[in-house]
Amino acid sequence: MEALAAVFRRILELDHVPADGNFFLLGGDSLIATRVLSAVARDHGVELTFEDFLADPTPAGLATRIATGSVTADAHRVVAGR
Fold first, then answer.
1. Residue limits of the Carrier domain (predicted)?
2. Do residues 47 and 75 lie in contact, with contact meaning Cβ atoms separated by under 8 Å?
């Protein structure tokens, strides 16, 4: 979860992002969300869909989706080279 909070911090250019910090309430938008999805794929080897992201746009929510495999069927692909 901390790694996902770090992604949010880096992309949103914030000093602090709580585990339950909603990406959109922290200033993110749909275009910037694609950068988060790319970073998650690169750093964690799992491609989440935008629908996955919208379901719970928080570091804790995304971490839970990744850990439990609760990602959209099309999204559960391991990135090549991981």
1. 1-70
2. yes
Q: How far is CA 67 from the centre of its chain?
A: 12
Read off the CATH number of the domain in which 23 is found: 1.10.1200.10
Q: Classify residue 10: in a domain, yes or no.
A: yes
Terminal Cα distance for the chain, rounded: 19
Rounded Cα gap, residues 36 and 25, in angstroms: 15
10 Å CB burial of residue 82 (0-12, 13-18, 19+) is exposed
Q: Distance between CA atoms of 57 and 51, rounded to whole angstroms?
A: 10
Tokens 């996902």: give the residue: 4
- What distance in Å separates the CA atoms of residue 82 and residue 71, rounded to the nearest whole number? 18
Alpha carbon distance 72, 11 (integer Å) = 23
